[in-house]
Amino acid sequence: MVALKAIFLTIASVVAVNADWHISFTYADGGQIESHGFFNSGCINFSKTNSEITTVYFDNNINTDTLELYVGADCRDLAYTAGPGSSNVPDKKYISYKVY
Ligand SMILES: *[C@@H]1O[C@H](CO)[C@@H](O)[C@H](O)[C@H]1NC(C)=O
Hints:
Elements: H1 2-17, E1 21-27, E2 32-37, E3 42-45, E4 53-59, E5 67-70, E6 78-82, E7 85-92, E8 96-99
Antiparallel strand pairs: 1-2, 1-4, 3-8, 4-7, 5-6, 5-8
The structure holds 2-acetamido-2-deoxy-beta-D-glucopyranose.
Residues 43, 45, 73-74 line the site of 2-acetamido-2-deoxy-beta-D-glucopyranose.
């Protein structure tokens, strides 16, 4: 049983180390967008820009701890920097974001 437990713990830690980051963006109109990845995201344009973003939830991983929100396309005009966890961001129509 001890050996089995050790195997499970090893598997669990490998899964944790290889886990993706996940972000959930919540919009003022009730819409939601989910995003995930393993490495730095590079610049991503939002697929939804017709409503303000009010809250983000950032579940980071070993490669990431920062989420940047921009009011311009192609990550121009940085407007907010968020860390892991839940953030009430300034309500704005964000156009692009970056995770690193
Ligand atoms: C983001 O949007 C801008 C403006 O529409 C466009 O020029 C650019 O190619 C897009 N960038 C990416 C990474 O999709």
